[in-house]
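Case study.
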Amino acid sequence: QKEVEQDPGPLSVPEGAIVSLNCTYSNSAFQYFMWYRQYSRKGPELLMYTYSSGNKEDGRFTAQVDKSSKYISLFIRDSQPSDSATYLCAIVGSNYKLTFGKGTLLTVNP
Amino acid sequence: DSGVTQTPKHLITATGQRVTLRCSPRSGDLSVYWYQQSLDQGLQFLIHYYNGEERAKGNILERFSAQQFPDLHSELNLSSLELGDSALYFCASSPGISGHNEQFFGPGTRLTVL
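After joint prediction, the assembly is written out as follows.
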């Protein structure tokens, strides 16, 4: 079983839709949970960061962590064409190594 | 612009050859991380340097090596190249030593091995 599993998509939604992106992980020692966004031909950039179970909100973005189920989610409300990118979950374990999911390609159609 | 620079942007070479990828971290950042991104494997951590010292190794092949110099720039050396080494190579930097700090990624070097 891979340490971090992420559905690669692709996911295509109309503008204004609510988007749900998900990852599961296998190692309960993972402590920090991040979402990175990667536009085409660019490096990833940090979008959201959390270290505890529950929800964290930042504008149209909400990161959700359920440690008991080893499941993390990113919700995007009122999605915009500018949100079209690949979204990567990233998880940090006790050795502080960052493990990425494979990424989900999202397209928001105007 | 993250402040991390990588050169070259593109590299095309042949199997068996050796190449060097270069990374300059953001001003003040002491940590440099190298990643390989391919379609089938995703973004894979290769190696982490902090202030000139190797701190952690990931899925880095023995044919690959890296170093961080006193001015904090880093180089990733790839030798005896194989077709499967074709990928995007990213460098990232962060101020501290811990992997849970935000990492700032460069634009990447696209390596094509023919």
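Observations recorded in class. The CA atoms of residues 5 and 56 of chain A lie 21 Å apart. Chain A touches chain B at residues 31-32, 41-46, 49, 51, 88, 92, 95-103 (CB under 8 Å). We will return to this complex in the next lecture.
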